[in-house]
Structures are given as C-alpha cells and as structure tokens.
Write a structure and sequence with these properties.
Elements (H helix, E strand, L loop, with lengths): L10 H8 L13 H12 L10 E6 L2 H18 L2 H8 L11 E7 L5 H18 L3 E5 L9 H7 L9 E9 L20
Antiparallel strand pairs: 1-2, 2-4, 3-4
Helix pairs in contact: 2-5, 3-4
Length: 192
C-alpha cells in the first residue's frame, strides 16, 4: 500500500521502490566514475561498530568472469538437479548475466561481517539504479571457490588473509526492457 505514502516520496525513496534486479546486460563497459561512485556508496553502508569487515574487488576482466562462470557451471552440473544442470549446460550461461563489471564483496568471517557485506551490496545496487545502471545482487558464485579450479581463480583477487567472497554485484547497462516490478508480500506486524 505505497499510495498512502506517495506524498512523502523523495528521490532516494523513489529509487529504492523502483530498483529491480537486471539479468541481461549490454556488453558496453560502464564509466569509471560511475564504478567509483558505486563502490564509495558500498563503503558508506551501515556496518557493525564501524569495523568495515569487508574487502571489495572490482572485476572488469572478461576472461576471469567467464572462467568463474564456468567454475559455477561445473558445480551446478554436479548437483544432478535438473533445473541447475539445464542452466549449467546452456551455451549462454553466465552466473553474472554477462555484466561487464562485477564487484565482489569479501568477508573476514567475523561476527556481523556477512551482514556488513550485505548492507554494502544493497547500497551499491541502489546507487547503480540512481545512476541509471542495472545491477543484480548475486551469491550463487561462492560455491565455485570451494573447488580446485575456483581456488586457483580466487588467487587473482589478492584478498587479505582470512577473507572470502560472499556476495557480488553485477553492474552494467540493462539489455532490453526492464523487468516489471513485482508486488511484495506484506509480512509485517505492528506492535504499538
């Protein structure tokens, strides 16, 4: 029931309400200034005790993103689940939806670090939307880093000791029509 609050709508709230996940990106690379602004928005995310228990890795290397997608496809194929096997075997499969830029958020695995990284990812998605860019919050890639191939690919990230990728944000220009906004269930109780 958003209509009752429309009178209070500002640009920030409007961007949050209209943001959606994009799963088809153009090959065109986004501007460096936009990437910097999006990453800065991630750094400004709420985090426990301002410990900033994250590390961001911006990947714009097509070969690395393709190799990571293939590692994910291998893991999906091994599950034996028909829906995952079918997706993994598709020649067009890309767990990052062919985005030209992917920001990986790594956690130091301390208490609250996953939540801190999730907050940063959400900030990045909202920032991207405000700039007219598409984004998709992705976590399914993480399983690939547990394989031998994935561990080799992870070396390219040069992560600080003890960090591991937990989320990523795919970024780029949406290819095609934007998906329609989906209604959200009203799973809310008020205790007053």
């Amino acid at each position: 029931m958003i209509h009752s609050t429309e009178q209070y709508m500002n640009e920030t709230i409007k961007t949050i309400m209209e943001r959606r996940s994009i799963r088809s990106f153009k090959q065109e690379q986004i501007e460096n200034a936009d990437v910097e602004l999006i990453v800065e928005a991630g750094l400004r995310a709420a985090n426990a005790m301002n410990r900033q228990t994250w590390h961001f890795t911006v990947v714009q290397n097509w070969r690395l993103l393709s190799d990571l997608s293939q590692a994910v496809a291998s893991v999906m194929a091994e599950t034996g689940l028909p829906s995952l096997v079918e997706r993994a075997e598709s020649p067009a499969f890309s767990c990052f939806h062919h985005a030209p830029t992917v920001v990986f958020l790594s956690s130091d695995k301390t208490v609250y670090s996953i939540a801190d990284c999730a907050n940063a990812a959400q900030n990045m998605c909202v920032a991207a939307s405000s700039l007219g860019l598409g984004s998709c919050y992705i976590a399914s890639f993480a399983q690939a880093f547990k394989t031998e191939q994935g561990r080799k690919l992870l070396e390219a990230f040069h992560l600080p000791e003890g960090f591991e990728p937990v989320f990523s944000v795919a970024l780029g220009y949406a290819d095609g029509d934007l998906p329609s906004l989906k209604e959200r269930e009203r799973k809310i109780d008020y205790i007053r």
